[in-house]
Amino acid sequence: MEKDKGALELLFSMEGIFLLAILAFRLGFIRELHLQLSPDEAYYWDWSRHLAWGYYSKPPMVAWLIALSTRFLGISEYAVRVPAVLCGMAFLVLFYLFVYRLFGKLPARWALFAAALIPIFTVFGLLMTIDPPLLLFWAGALYAGWKAAEENRWFYWGLLGVFCGLGLLTKQTMLAFGFFYGLWLLVFRKELLRGFGPWLALGLAFLIWAPNLYWIATHHWVTLHHTEHHFKEEGLSLFGPVRFLGEQAGVLSPLLLILFIWVSWQILRRKDWRSEPRLTYLWVLSAWPYLAVLPLSLFRKVNANWPMPFFVAGLALTAGVIFSLRGRGAKWLRLLYVAGVGMALVGTALLYQLPRFPQKFPPSLAGLLFRFYGWKELARVVDSHRRPGEALVTDHRYLASELAFYLPDHPQVYQIPVSPPRTQYHLWGIPRNLCGKPVLWVMKDAHRPPDPRAVPVLRESIPLPGKRKRDFSLWRGFFIMKLCSLSG
Asked: Transmembrane residues, as ranges (predicted)?
């Protein structure tokens, strides 16, 4: 282990220059590309206009960060995504310092190169969802958690609690960090649990999270009910784990994933490796969570980003072991790691080119971008048919959020209320003063609005990449009293 790297030392180093180049490139990329917001990004932007301690499906951090950025930079795609770039860069810095602390310069350098080039980490260094700040706070908790266990100082226990609390204000997945960190203490560092430090961290984390918990409790636990559906069975699929690992190989790097599995297996079978605290720390916070997620893939599809935070420790573990080994075979393992970074670089390079030249890619790949296209065109059509004083009401949150962002006056767009609520728009409801007022209904496909007197205005399709299309219809009518009562 080496002493911590100072900020100035990092800045004036090869790694610092690399990080500054990545920062400049990512900021320039999102500035010049003008890629339309995905529905989730637009949804979170709409949240940022109604700041609160919680929202229907997620804690408030993503909305707070977007609100801060758009207050200073104005409302634009660039302003919405700047926090993702900054969070992504802060994640890389903390991750590098963490690996440097555990293993030294060479492993930290190659861990940094991999983290900056792995496709899924790149995506969440460009698009503003809940994952960029989660990666930042997760890396901070990893660093603080190790320092706290290593030095057993109140400062680091407190810092661990702060990072975990901020992570809990970002995504409920942060609970998994606390669970597996606690397991590591219980199995490998039980003596620390007899001290005050871990309980200070736990108390601080829940103190920071408490306002969001209060919001959830006073809104009928909607966030927890929404989270439950992620764990509902969809039927047994024996190929689920194969599909899960295949997707992980695609979004990470096949060789890096294979090396991670190999290192994890070596720790399992070699007692001398399990006696090394650095290895067990990273092993418990990476391999164990992956083993917990794997059975879930038998019963439902596991989204590629769900286990993404666990690979932060996994990548640190892989680089730390591979570049610390000596003796026969070490050279070949390093070559495999470098080749894995090369594969990640190729994947990320293609990722950067895909939104710039979708027509040059196969339709199956170009079709992955369909969520980022067609919203400006939809807004232009809707704007051309709006009348003064008409409210806009839709039947889908995607339409509501994208229209709110891309219409010139950024109006509040409403979603047809249902009970129980299924989106944040349902929680906000419909203002009473709109009941009985004129409405321009914007419906997905050819769906008919709930107003029986609604008159069709048009039905149209917008072409999207990958030979896809977005169908919608416009209707003119009134907001009926029955829906007013549903809105509460």
From this structure: 7-29, 78-98, 110-130, 154-187, 199-217, 249-268, 280-300, 306-323, 335-354
Q: What pLDDT sits at residue 486? A: 60
Which of 339, 273, 281, 335 has its CA nearest to residue 313? Answer: 281
% of the chain surpassing 90 pLDDT = 79
**Vertex 43, ends 210 and 124: CA angle to 5°?**
80
Beta strands (DSSP E) in 260-418 are 391-394, 414-415
With a CB cutoff of 8 Å and minimum separation 6, the contacts of 398 are: 39, 42, 43
Ramachandran sector of residue 250 (left: φ over 0; alpha: ψ -120 to 50; beta: rest): alpha
d(CA 26, CA 22): 6
Query: How many other CB atoms are there within 10 angstroms of residue 75's CB atom?
Result: 16
Single-letter code of the amino acid located at 480? I
Residue 119: what residue type? Answer: P
Residue 360 Cα distances to 30, 250, 356, 373, angstroms: 20, 20, 9, 16
Residues of the chain short of pLDDT 50, as ranges, are 488
Instruction: Write out the two tokens for 296.
Output: 């879930």
CA distance 375 to 310: 34
- Given the DSSP bridges, would you call strands 455-464 and 468-478 parallel, antiparallel or unpaired? antiparallel
Given this model, what pLDDT does residue 482 score? 67
Cα 456 from Cα 458, distance rounded (Å): 6
The Cα–Cα gap between 436 and 439 comes to: 9
Residue 40 makes CB contacts below 8 A (sequence gap 6+) with 129
Tell me the torsion sign for CA atoms 182, 185, 186, 187.
positive
**156 alpha-carbon distance from chain centroid:** 26
Q: What is the pLDDT of residues 132-187, one digit of tens each?
A: 999 999 999 999 999 999 999 999 999 999 999 999 999 999 999 999 999 999 99
The three-state secondary structure class of 206 is helix
Task: Give CA–CA dist 439/430, Å, rounded.
Answer: 12
Tell me the backbone φ, ψ of residue 49, rounded to 5 degrees.
-85, -5
pLDDT at 432: 82
> How far is residue 37 CA from its own chain's centroid?
15
- Locate 173 and state its tokens: 């997945």
Phi and psi at residue 414, to the nearest 5°? -110, 155
Maximum alpha-carbon separation in the chain: 80
Show Cβ contacts of residue 18 under 8 Å, excluding neighbours closer than 6 positions.
Answer: 112, 113, 116
Q: Cα 112 vs. chain centroid, distance in angstroms?
A: 19
Q: Domain ranges in the chain?
A: 7-353, 371-487
Going across the sheet that includes 438-444, the strands are 414-415, 391-394, 438-444, 468-478, 455-464
Q: Which residue has the tokens 């977005």?
A: 470
- What is the C-alpha separation between 198 and 145, in angstroms, rounded? 9
